[in-house]
TrEMBL record, chain A:
Domain of life of the organism encoding this protein: Bacteria
Location of the Transketolase-like pyrimidine-binding domain: 1-162
One Pfam family here: Transket_pyr
Residues spanning the membrane: none
Organism name: Candidatus Nomurabacteria bacterium RIFCSPHIGHO2_01_FULL_42_16
PANTHER family assigned: PYRUVATE DEHYDROGENASE E1 COMPONENT (PTHR43825), TRANSKETOLASE-LIKE PYRIMIDINE-BINDING DOMAIN-CONTAINING PROTEIN (PTHR43825:SF1)
SMART domains (UniProt xref): Transket_pyr
InterPro entries, sorted: PDH/Transketolase, THDP-binding, Transketo_C/PFOR_II, Transketolase-like_Pyr-bd, Transketolase_C
Protein name listed in UniProt: Transketolase-like pyrimidine-binding domain-containing protein
From TrEMBL, chain B:
Protein name in UniProt: Transketolase
Alphabetized Pfam families for the sequence: Transketolase_N (PF00456)
Domain Transketolase N-terminal stretches: 12-236
Organism name: Candidatus Nomurabacteria bacterium RIFCSPHIGHO2_01_FULL_42_16
Source species, domain of life: Bacteria
SUPFAM superfamilies named among the record's database cross-references: Thiamin diphosphate-binding fold (THDP-binding)
Signal peptide: none
Length: 292, 253
């Protein structure tokens, strides 16, 4: 996904003179060509995320289109108020593309984990939140959203699905239809959900956009009155949306990152095992829910 | 100026809202900017070729509103509705509601970073326009001010002018000392000026700086013009009433 981010930006830099890329001293090697080719529109701006978001809003006032790139906690938690006031409240458009997701940097400790990003950003009215599951989806969703005058957060992850979809901003994809229940899979969790449910008679709905939320598709396709929501960030961010979308009372189970500090190191996969994020866990949870 | 000051006090008294001493502290600075410096007009308030002014210390909004009304950006009658439920004019300015307001400020330390972005934007678009911003000395406690100060000098934003309303209101918490030297050490051209001497303010704003952003440290008095309010922190967010109001208006200069 990171390589695709570089490719997509390189392509747009050539075509759209309004695009300005601000790197928080991250991705400098990846963007080395753009840094030298477009010195007036690509900056290694430094390690000062709060002022960077404000600066980006100033660029947006000039009808330029800023893209800020750094590691998720620094791009979101550290400068939440700048995103809220400088973009949200002021109705300015811009883009934040983060890396690291919930615990891609497993060994670096909780300072570099960011399972809270989606949940906190959802508090900003009118923000767009994109959690792509594959490189091609990032490319497509970025091109759809980057210049539409809103603040959009793109959550890149090291984890990618083998399955790729033609995705539309703000739209869910119904991946398969079943009768006993529904599994909602967000972004890079889809592969695991698909393998886990291959022999189960359930509907699978895939979400690569969290905001705007596709109430309609969810509403039309929830099956069996039972839903397992699989989210790659803190569990529970979209539960209220699912309840609102459903026309019938639901039995809901949540599989996401638990709200605790994951203070072990090791690898992403080890963390998956530790918090119950494996194919087998998903299989068991779906089965349990369908039998309930 | 006396009329504008009266209006500020009346608006606050009527609405029981607003920060009068902060507004009086920046009023001379605002007047010089809008009267003699900024390349901006009510008709061209959204023209891409305008200069940009940001009131980073948004709580001085009363000062900004009376100047915007005087210069025809907003209707003078709207001043009487200050802070009412449906008013466009709130305790802090909102860019989505008010013609001539470039940034919705209120939370301190946001205006200067945005001004840096706007100045960089002019450079990217190869425009000669300038960006002016007023920050408070208390606001200079915020880390984003110094993050922005580094950014502005590193990117040679000589089209940016930051005016510090140095009324020492922050001294009771953190003393900032010599702000002129601080900005210089961050790579800015900096000068101090009497923030209530309009001619001197104008001359300071007209000085050219090559490759460096400009900081003007304006020595100001919080509540300037009202002996009752001057440098008395009790009045920071308090509205006058009854005899007190009459007295303040009478002794105003």
């Amino acid at each position: 996904m990171r390589k695709q981010f570089v490719k997509t930006i390189e392509e747009i830099l050539k075509e759209d003179k309004r695009l300005v890329l601000l790197l928080g001293d991250i991705g400098v090697f990846g963007f080395r060509d753009s840094l030298s080719r477009f010195p007036d529109r690509v900056y290694n701006i430094g390690i000062l995320e709060q002022a960077t978001i404000g600066l980006a809003a100033g660029l947006a006032m000039q009808e330029l289109i800023p893209v800020v790139h750094t590691i998720a906690p620094f791009a979101t938690e550290r400068c939440f108020e700048q995103i809220k006031n400088d973009f949200g409240y002021q109705k300015l458009g811009g883009n934040i593309v983060s890396v690291g997701a919930s615990y891609d940097y497993a060994a670096l400790g909780c300072t570099h984990h960011c399972p809270a990003d989606v949940g906190i950003l959802m508090n900003i009215p009118d923000i767009q939140i994109v959690v792509p599951g594959a490189a091609s989806e990032f490319d497509s969703l970025f091109k759809q959203a980057y210049a539409n005058g809103k603040m959009t957060y793109f959550r890149l992850s090291e984890r990618e699905n083998q399955i790729e979809f033609p995705v539309k901003l703000g739209c869910a994809n119904v991946v398969k239809k079943g009768k006993l229940g529904t599994v909602i899979a967000v972004g890079p969790l889809l592969d695991k959900v698909m393998s886990a449910t291959k022999d189960l008679d359930v509907t699978v709905i895939y979400l690569a956009t969290i905001r705007p939320f596709d109430f309609e598709t969810i509403s039309k396709n929830i099956a069996g009155g039972k839903v397992l929501i699989c989210e790659p960030y803190y569990s529970g961010a979209i539960t209220g949306d699912i309840i609102m979308a459903s026309k019938q009372p639901l039995k809901i189970d949540l599989l996401g990152v638990p709200k605790e500090f994951l203070n072990k190191y090791g690898t992403m996969e080890e963390h998956d095992g530790h918090i119950g994020f494996t194919e087998k866990d998903i299989f068991n949870r779906v089965k349990q829910l369908c039998q309930a | 100026m006396r009329r504008l000051k009266e209006k500020i006090i009346e608006m606050s008294a009527k609405s029981k809202e607003g920060h009068i001493p902060s507004a009086l502290s920046v009023l001379d600075l605002l007047w010089v900017l809008y009267d003699r410096v900024l390349n901006i007009s009510p008709e061209g308030a959204s023209s891409p070729d305008r200069d940009i002014f940001i009131l980073s210390k948004g709580h001085a909004s009363l000062g900004l509103y009376v100047v915007l009304a005087e210069k025809g950006f907003i209707n003078s009658k709207s001043l009487d509705d200050f802070c009412k439920f449906k008013s466009d004019l709130g305790g802090h300015p909102d860019r989505t509601k008010i013609s001539g307001v470039e940034a919705s400020t209120g939370s301190l330390g946001h205006g200067l970073p945005m001004a840096v972005g706007a100045a960089l934007g002019f450079k990217i678009k190869k425009q000669k326009n300038k960006v002016y911003v007023i920050v408070g000395d208390g606001e200079c406690n915020e880390g984003t001010i110094w993050e922005s100060a580094l950014l502005a000098s590193n990117h040679h934003l000589d089209n940016l002018c930051c005016i510090v309303d140095y009324n020492h209101s922050g001294d009771r918490a953190l003393k900032l000392g010599n702000l002129e030297e601080k900005f210089k050490s961050f790579g800015w051209t900096a000068a101090s000026v009497d923030g209530h001497d309009q001619e001197k303010i104008y001359q300071a704003l007209m000085k050219k700086s090559l490759n460096r952003p400009v900081a003007i440290i304006a020595r100001t008095i919080k509540g300037h013009g009202s002996k009752i309010m001057e440098n008395n922190p009790v009045w920071h967010h308090k509205f006058p009433k009854g005899e007190e109001l009459d007295m303040i208006l009478k002794e105003l200069n």
